[in-house]
């Protein structure tokens, strides 16, 4: 039971180029974001069946998230994170998700800049 509660599928630093930012200069040139996802999923089922139909397909998730993020301009990386969480819930039925969106070029003096959110869909039932 404990393993089901902590099972997840992880995608680290998925690189996505998109229009993102609040300043005028950011509205005309793409910048690179890096998205890291921890997605709650019962891996015991595909672990026993060896069937991709039982698994959370990380290739399909990566393609969907890349298309969603690059699909329209946004201002805040917070909105990118929130939108990804909603997409993963609605399109892939993940149990919970931790989403980190990094924008390394945002502050020249900083090694990295990121926001991170956690959404537990089982708890809300929505
Ligand atoms: N919390 C946030 N702060 C800021 C954001 C953001 O998305 N979330 N964005 C900017 C600018 O777009 C910045 O990245 C330009 O370098 C400033 N602060």
TrEMBL record:
GO terms for cellular component: cytoplasm. NCBIfam families: folB (TIGR00525), folB_dom (TIGR00526). Catalyzes the conversion of 7,8-dihydroneopterin to 6-hydroxymethyl-7,8-dihydropterin. Residues 9-119 form the Dihydroneopterin aldolase/epimerase domain. The keyword Isomerase applies. Pfam families: FolB. PANTHER family: DIHYDRONEOPTERIN ALDOLASE 1-RELATED. Its EC number is 4.1.2.25. Belongs to the DHNA family. This is 7,8-dihydroneopterin aldolase. Keywords: Folate biosynthesis, Isomerase, Lyase. GO terms for biological process: folic acid biosynthetic process; tetrahydrofolate biosynthetic process. Gene3D superfamilies: 3.30.1130.10. It catalyses: 7,8-dihydroneopterin = 7,8-dihydromonapterin; 7,8-dihydroneopterin = 6-hydroxymethyl-7,8-dihydropterin + glycolaldehyde. Pathway: Cofactor biosynthesis; tetrahydrofolate biosynthesis; 2-amino-4-hydroxy-6-hydroxymethyl-7,8-dihydropteridine diphosphate from 7,8-dihydroneopterin triphosphate: step 3/4. It comes from Idiomarina tyrosinivorans.
């Amino acid at each position: 039971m404990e393993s089901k509660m902590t099972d997840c599928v992880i995608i680290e630093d998925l690189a996505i180029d998109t229009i993102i930012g609040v300043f005028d200069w950011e509205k005309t040139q793409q910048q690179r974001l890096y998205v890291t996802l921890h997605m709650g999923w019962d891996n015991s089922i595909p672990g026993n069946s060896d069937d991709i139909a039982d698994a959370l397909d990380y290739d399909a998730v990566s393609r969907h998230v890349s298309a969603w993020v690059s699909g329209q301009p946004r201002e805040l990386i917070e909105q990118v994170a929130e939108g990804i969480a909603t997409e993963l819930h609605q399109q892939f039925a993940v149990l919970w998700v931790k989403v980190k969106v990094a924008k390394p070029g945002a502050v020249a003096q900083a090694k990295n800049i990121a926001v991170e959110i956690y959404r537990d869909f089982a708890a809300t039932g929505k």
